[in-house]
Amino acid sequence: MSERTTAGSADFDPDDFLVVPARTFEDLRVGEVFRAPSRTLTDAHAAAFQTVSADNHPVHYDAEWARKRGHPAPVVHGLQVLAFTAPGATLFPHFIGEVFISFLELSCTFLAEVHSGDTLYPALTVTALEPQGDNGIVVTAATIHNQRGELVLSGRHKYLLRRTA
């Protein structure tokens, strides 16, 4: 190895190694969409979430119990579905990393059951930009569709950002 390789490059700065160019609050636009990669849920995902959440209701793991109560299969935990709207599942935090202050709030409505084998398509769409002095609030619509194009979750997130980097 050359000395340059072992000592590092004077031209490389890890702080400049960005996935996408950094943006400010003012660079965001209403209507911008930040998608997450699609995910096909498996029984292993549901079992892992059940372990972490300690939610042991049989609707989530007992196929016979679920069928007897009108569900075609065990139902994936709603909070697990909601987790797919996490901003970190998209490129959004890479765009706002230097100006992000906090995740302020979220709300959602579960519109349809999700089952193992379903593929989910999460997205965050900027719906409002509210300047507030040196900071600003970004409001996004959080949506998840399944492989049949059905909207299974609809919600809203709010983030607080600095208006300058």
From TrEMBL:
The signal peptide here is none
**Per its UniProt record, what SUPFAM superfamilies does this chain match?**
Thioesterase/thiol ester dehydrase-isomerase
Question: Organism's domain of life?
Answer: Bacteria
The protein's matches in Pfam families, at most eight in alphabetical order, are given as: MaoC_dehydratas (PF01575)
InterPro entries, alphabetized? HotDog_dom_sf, MaoC-like_dom, MCH/BMMD
Domain MaoC-like span(s) in chain numbering: 30-145
Name the family the entry cites: Belongs to the enoyl-CoA hydratase/isomerase family.
This chain's protein is named: Dehydratase
Q: Which organism is it from?
A: Streptomyces yokosukanensis
> Upper taxonomic classification of the species?
Bacteria, Bacillati, Actinomycetota, Actinomycetes, Kitasatosporales
